[in-house]
């Protein structure tokens, strides 16, 4: 059931854990970046769904940084939460951590932001609740989410000024 779109809501981390198998890897034995993006997208979608209790679809992927390769056999943890909420859209921070299963060494391999839009039952954009910020970390992530949103709008404005091929 959809939540009240006027009442602020917190967004908790959604965490998914999996193992990287050979069919996830490219020819050099590291995980395909596209598969990492897919895992981030699914995880971020769940964060949005839990936040607004609406179906939410990806509108864009914003800066995503691949910091280090993910190896076959690594334990992969993907975590996401809504860090900025507008009228119908949400910016989600997504982080990917790889863990060596024998040493326990953990490293941040990928992080980025994804932009989602909540949909009503007819498939049209619908209002989402305001985001409740409970900690300094959430406030920092919200400020970064606001910057991501502003950069996205600027990029879209400049792209719409380009001639159509």
Describe the structure.
The chain has helices at residues 33-52, 136-160; strands at 14-19, 55-66, 75-85, 89-99, 106-119. With 165 residues, the protein is of the alpha+beta class. Strands 1-3-4-5-2 form a 5-stranded antiparallel β-sheet.
Give a nutshell description of this structure.
This protein has helices at 33-52, 136-160, and strands spanning 14-19, 55-66, 75-85, 89-99, 106-119. With 165 residues, the chain is an alpha+beta fold.
Summary keywords:
165 residues, alpha+beta, Thiol Ester Dehydrase, Chain A, 5-stranded antiparallel β-sheet, 2 helices, 27% helix, globular
The biggest beta sheet, please? 5 strands, antiparallel
The count of helical stretches stands at 2
Helix content: 25-40%
CATH architecture: Roll
Based on CA atoms alone, the radius of gyration comes out at 17 Å
Number of strands: 5
SSE layout and pairing:
Elements: E1 14-19, H1 33-52, E2 55-66, E3 75-85, E4 89-99, E5 106-119, H2 136-160
Antiparallel strand pairs: 1-3, 2-5, 3-4, 4-5
